[in-house]
Every structure is written in structure tokens, then in C-alpha cells.
Amino acid sequence: MISIKDRVAIIGMGCIRFGERWDQSPDDMLVDVVYEAIEDAGIDREAIQAAWIGSSRMAMGQVLGRPLKLRIPITRVENACAGGTESFRGACYAVAAGIYDIAIAAGVEKLKDSGYSGLDIRGGQPSSEVEPALPPPTGFAMRAISYCHKYGYSVEQLKEASAKLMVESHKNGSLNPRAHFRRTITEEQVINAPMIAYPLGVLDCCGISDGAAAAIIVPIDKAKEYRDDYVVVKSATVNFGSGGWTKKDDFIHFDNNKCAAETAYREAGIKDPRKEIDMAIVHDCFSINQLIIMEDLGFSQEGAAIEDVNAGFFKLRGGGIPINTDGGLKCFGHPIAASGLRMIYEVYKQIQGKTEKPERQLSNVKLGLTHNMGGHLPGLCITGMTILGRRED
Amino acid sequence: MIGIKRFGSYVPLYRLGPGTHGWRWSTTRAVANFDEDSITMAVAAARNCLIELDRSKVDGLIFTSTTPPYLEKQCAHIIAQALDLCDDIYCMDICNCLRSGTIALKVAIDTVKAGTARQVLVVAADKRQVLPASSLEPVIGDGAAAILISDSSVAAEVNINYETMNYEILGKWRTHDSAMVSSSEERLYRDEGELKIMPQVFGSLLKKCDLSPEDIDRIVLSSPTQKEYRRMMGKFGFEKNAKVQESLFSQIGNTGTAMSLMMLVDALESSNPGEKLVLLNYGNGADASCLTVTEELSRNTINRSLRRQLERGKVLEEYETYLRWRRLVEWGGGASRREPEAPSPACLYREQNKNLRLYGSKCKQCGSIYFPAQRVCIECHSHDNFEVYRFSDKKGKLFTYTLDYLTPTPIPPVSCGWADIEGGGKTQQIITDVDPNAVEVGMPVEFSFRNVSERKGIENYYWKFIPYVE
Q: For this structure, is A371 an active site residue?
């Protein structure tokens, strides 16, 4: 296998304001983000040669083709919550293969059209319906209990550390006009929030939102024709788990995360992620997942993420690796197939030095990582990861 | 010799009683959980009966109830699946008569005597429904019993004489457009029914068996008004309350079709070799049969005796819990949610061994055990190289859990957890019959067959965890 490192670059991106967009259809959101990306890239819309569109509920390429009148190859992709990264990867690989010179990857989700509060788990394939139809928080809540048990933490200690993460995400989200939730919160509010699935409270859980984002990809040797501050793709990978729960499974860490990290670091040539990664936007669907991901990605030693949290290692300022600098899933909500691209959008802007609010801008970002994850059962999850870098030539 | 080889009972964990806020009576009754019905309770009683027995040797199953979940669709074979019995056994439902338990015993005895089957399992179960605050409410209960009739290793020989009398008098009844039992005046069916014909069948039986009342060590009598024993005993030629098996009314209520067989199980669990028992049952008539306990009884391992289950009873704190369990009061989930889908019949068909028999797999190459079964081994990737592995009789230990406050359920939260199963394998199930505050890592669990939902008239059965207690 050959690597995708330094083969393609992002020259333009768009990202809608995530939230309860009652006034916008999926078509409306895609028109907005695609034109924002086209404008950012400075290209003619007719120059786009192929498209990938992530959507967990709407089928067929017409999801993108109908609103945008694109008479080109369009692939609709679905990989649960990693759908956005899947879409991005499709476009990157097609351009890296030398087949296309300009491709677009988009993702869209209108969760709030369901009419229900909470995630609407629509039936897909019919089933016998005997398996407990437990909502997503339960799987992660059980990992939290396992985590405390394995590493000797009390539930209170876990909740305190989780609260610090959520407070920090909200601080970042309050500095982001595109986030859904933009108010700051306190640790007490997180710890005392109503219980959703013990020990996770409502403020340990990301929200349900609408959203869309898009990215325009070109081959690396053509990137400078469009802009100076193009962003280089160092790695784009999607990895599945083992297919079930094995004896080695501790019901805490995700083998799909570890596989994706291994692939991504190898592709990007990263030996010590804790030192080399400058920022990361990760899948904080639930606070416990953010902790677990820090260990799965090798940012923290196994069992030591809480120590790093308490030491401020993941804060926007003064830490080692700022995490979820845009507010994360916590503040954006999680429109399923859009989130992966929203994560890439933040890294893209941070590397360029162009975050909307300078208070959120990190200095000197050379390597940023996005991590996106679907599923919750052991061995049955999928991870999408990208590593993006600053132009070096 | 033909008779009872093994026996078992099931008393639901929960009670309504004087400790329940909103319970207006002085009696205590056993009450099935919202996920139990006559099929699930029959399975539970049968599992206690069949412990350590080779299930492939059971070649007949008769289910009796006045509250079968289905009016059209056999219940007996669903129970047979859950018990992992063979496919080619004969299965029968005898429903609609409160006396069906002893009627079924007669059918089983006759079958074994005719030689067309050798080990016939009779299960009786009822989940009874009466109107709140009605006069029947303090006296009814839920429960089940299972009796294995055989021609080998008989623990209580059943005399072939079965005396019965049909009798037309309205006592209790229910038609298919009502879930509630109706009743006539107790004095009518007690004085004109029970007190008239039960002594008659008892007398006929003694005559046929050439026995006198002094030969009988215990009467196991089941009727709607058991408190009138005193008057009855006089009519049977006994003194006062002599030799009568203790009624379970005051502890669990009258469990309908299951009552007579539960009392029989209770009697057998405390009897000794050589004792003669007379089983008397009433409901649309009466019947009587005679049993003699053998030496074989002492070789029986009693699993979950009825008395032990009585000890374990937990009194509900709130009457409203029962009202919600039985949908006597409508309840809604918290957040607005999509109505869940009805199960796909094709999927139910295809998954029956997984869902009902709780079959998983054991890889022949590396020995890994899985639930559900895996055609490709997760560890060694061996393909279609496994043997079938039954999980339902195995115990486990929880290694993680959570309390789900989102899923609609009568009394939130829903407890669920993952357990390491003895012998191998890990599985996630809902935990029922448990106080959510008591769930913890390391809790011992076992599997329990439950009704997980009813949608579009389809009763959907699966297994949950319950705390394992000796």
C-alpha cells in the first residue's frame, strides 16, 4: 500500500452555522456550504469534476446533484457518525489516484426534521426487535463504569474530570459563531445535570443538531495555483473494528480507534503523537468518549487521561494538545454525516491562521488531527481520521 | 409405575401487600412484572423442574392457563423452544378452565400409560387480571408450576383412578372481549358448588382406590374459597383442619390454573416416602386423584423450592407501579420518541434459535464462545467451523452496567449490563427484577425468559438478566 501523504490539498471549505435550522432544508444547507467552499477556493463551480456526499438518511447522489445542478459523478456515502470523514477520504483518494483534478466532499444532516427530541433511531433493516433498543448514551455510559473499575477511579472523580472537558469545550464554543451552543457552563452544572444514562448526565452528551460542511480537494502540485495557504492532507483513513468482542476487549478502549491511529500516524510519518500533534478535533459525542480517545490516540497513557485533564494538558491555552478548539460535538451537536467535515474545517482554518474569532486562534499549527467515530458496541465501530498539515515547501 | 418424576414452581418476585402504598387490602398477593406473562412464568417453573435433567428426553408438553398471551397461536411450542426441547415432541394448550392443571395431569398420565410418550411435562401458569378495588383484587395472584410425568424414576406414583364430576354453575368467567375476570356471588359457588361436589369426588376416589380417610396423609385442595377448609373437612370425614396442605392464598393469592399444581409442588417439597396425598381441584366441576410418595423423592434435587421463593418476595412500594405494569393506567415515555417498529416475521423466524433457545456458538478451532453465534470466528477467523452452544442455563457476572433514563419503560430507569458468562462468552442484556440502585459490577446474574414487547399483536420473547440468588 502507498500513502496519501502530501498527495492532495484542501483549497477551499464551507461550514454552515450548526443548530436547529428549522428554516433550512438539506438542499438549502448544501447550496450554502458548497458555494462558500467554491468562493473560498476561488474556482468556477463548473470546474468541479467529481463529488462525494455524506448523508446517513438520504440516498443517492441526487442529495447533492439536485440542489447544485452538478452533472458529474456523485457518490453518496454512509458510515454512520464517520460519514463526513468517509466523504472526505473518497474525494482525496480519487484526486490522489490522478483521476480528477478538482473534487468536492460534502456532508449534510437534518436531524431536527424528525419531530422528536433526542436522536431518532429510525429503523433501517427490519429486525426481530429483541435486542434492547438502548439509546447511544448507554453504550458509552457502560464504558465509563468499566473505566472507573479498571483504573481505580470513583465515579465522582470521573465526573469531575469530564466536567472540566465540557466546560473547556463550551468556552471554545462561546468563541465560535458557527456553533449551536454558545453559552459557557460551569463544572457544577455538568456534575449535577439530570442523569441520562448513569453516570452520564445531560451535559456530558452532545446535542442533536442540523449541519453541513464541504471541502474542495486538488492534487498537491496544482494547489499553489489556487492559494498560498492551502492545507496538505497527511493522512485520511477509515478503520473498522474486529467484528465483535474479543477476549482482549476491555470494554473501554476502541480497537477501531487504535487501528485508525496506527494507520494515520504511519501514513503521516508521526512517531510521537503527544509531542508532534499541535491540535486535535475529536469525537466527543459523550464526555467519556473524549477521555477514551485521548488514550486510544496515544495522547495520554492508558488510564492516565484524567491526570492529563486535571493538569490542563488539553486546554486551548497553556496545555500540550488543545482539543476541540471549536467547541467540539458538544457545542456543534452531531449532525451525523456533517460532523467529520466540520472537524476538518476547524483544523483547516487554524492552520491557515484564519479562525473567525482570534481569541480561539492557536499560533503555529503545523499538524492537526481530526477523529470521527461511529457505533458503540465493542469491535463494531468505525473510525475516520485525518491528519492535516501546513504547506512546507 | 407411572407418576411424577420431577416438579418445580415459579412465584414472581414482587408482591402487593399491606406495605404497598395505595394497596387497600390486608392480604398479600404475588404480582408478575410487566415483562412476564403466563408463557414466561411457565418457562421459569419448567426450568426449576428440569434442572439437571436431559431435556432431549422430554417428549410431550402441555400448557394450561386461563390467560394465554395468544388466543390464536399455540403457546406450548413457544415454551418448548425456550426450554430447548426437541422439535418432534407433541405440544398442546389446554386453556380456559381454572381446573386445567389437574385435567392436564390426567392427559399426561394417560399418555404415558398408553406408551405414546414417556416424559410429558405439564406446565400451568396464570397472570390474572381483575378490576382495581374489586372484591377479587385481594385474593388473586400470579404464578406457575411444572410437573414432569414419567414411567421411570417416579417420585410420587399417581393412582390411575381419576374421579371427576362436571358441574354447571357460574363461579368465575371471562369472555374474549374483556381482560377482567367476572365472578358470581361467592356463597353460590361455594355452597352449591365446592361444598357439594368436592366431597363427592373425594368419596368416589376413596371407594375406587379402596382407601378410607385415615389412610390419607395430606389433602392438597385447591378451590376459589379455600378459607372454608374447616367446613369442607367435616364433609370429607375429617376433623376440622386435619391433614390439609397449607393454603398459599394469604401469601401469594389464588394463582388460577397454576394454584392446584403449585400447592402440589409445595406438598411434595415437604413430604416423605410412603405418604399418600389426595389432590382435589375445583373449577367447572371437580376432580380428585391419589398419589403415593416413593423413595425416589429423596433423590430429587429441589431447585428453588416454593417456600424459598416465598421468602424472597419483595413488596412493591407503590400500587401505581402495578397499575403501570398492567396498563391499567396509561403511561408515556419522557421525551417524545418515534413509536418502535413491530418485529419482522422473517427475522423472528430466522433468529428463533438465538432468541428463544439462546443458542450461541463455540469455535471448533480455537474454542472461543460467542453470543450471538458467529459464522466467522472473531478470534481466529475460522469459517463455518463451530458447534451450537446453549446459554440459557448458564450463570454470569456483570462487568459493567448502566441505568438508562431515556428508554420508555413503566418505572424508569432501565437497567442493563454486560456479563462474563461461566464457561465463556460475554453478552449484554436488560436486567429485570432488580432495584436499579442495587446493580453493581460483579453482581451474579442468570438468564430469565421474558416478554420484551407486544407490537401489532405480536408477543416478542427474549432473555434478560436477573440477579442470581441461591
A: no
Whether residue B267 is predicted with pLDDT greater than 80 in this model: the reply is yes
Q: Could you tell me what percent of chain B has a pLDDT over 70?
A: 97
What secondary structure letter does DSSP report for B92? E
Q: Is A81 a catalytic residue?
A: yes
Neighbours of A2 (CB within 10 A): 7
Adjacent-strand bridge partners of B292: B157, B276
Statement: residue B52 has pLDDT above 90: no
Q: Contact B338/A116, CB-based, under 8 Å?
A: yes
CB A170 within 8 A of CB A179: no
Q: Which of B402, B404, B431 to mutate to test the interface with A (most CBs of A within 10 A)?
A: B402
From the candidates A15, A81, A148, A331, give the one annotated as an active-site residue. Answer: A81
Instruction: Test B336 with A115 for CB contact under 8 angstroms.
Output: yes
Q: B52, exposed or middle or buried, with CB in 10 Å at 0-12, 13-18, 19+? A: exposed
Contacts of A143 in chain B (CB under 8 A): 400
Residues A175-209: b if buried by 16+ CB within 10 A, e if exposed: bbebbbbbeebebebbbebebbbbbbbebbbbbbb
Per-residue confidence (pLDDT) for residue B170, from 0 to 100: 86
Task: Write down the pTM of the prediction.
Answer: 0.94
Whether A142 sits inside 8 A of B406 (CB atoms) is: no
According to the model, what pLDDT value does residue B247 have?
A: 84
Percent of residues, chain B, with pLDDT higher than 90 = 77
Contacts of B452 in chain A (CB under 8 A): 129-130, 132
Nearest to A102 by CA among A7, A238, A10: A10
Q: CB-based contacts of A77: which residues, under 8 Å, 6+ apart?
A: A52, A53, A54, A83, A86, A87, A90, A337
Mutate: best of A112, A128, A155, A204, partner B, most B CBs <10 A? A128
**Around Cβ B78, how many Cβ atoms within 10 Å?**
23
Supply A33's cell numbers: 456550504
Of A253, A334, A371, A376, the active-site residue reads: A334
pLDDT of residue A18: 97
Query: A291 CB contacts (<8 Å, ≥6 apart)?
Result: A147, A158, A161, A162, A165, A305, A306, A309
Can you list the residues of chain A whose pLDDT is less than 70? 1, 122-123
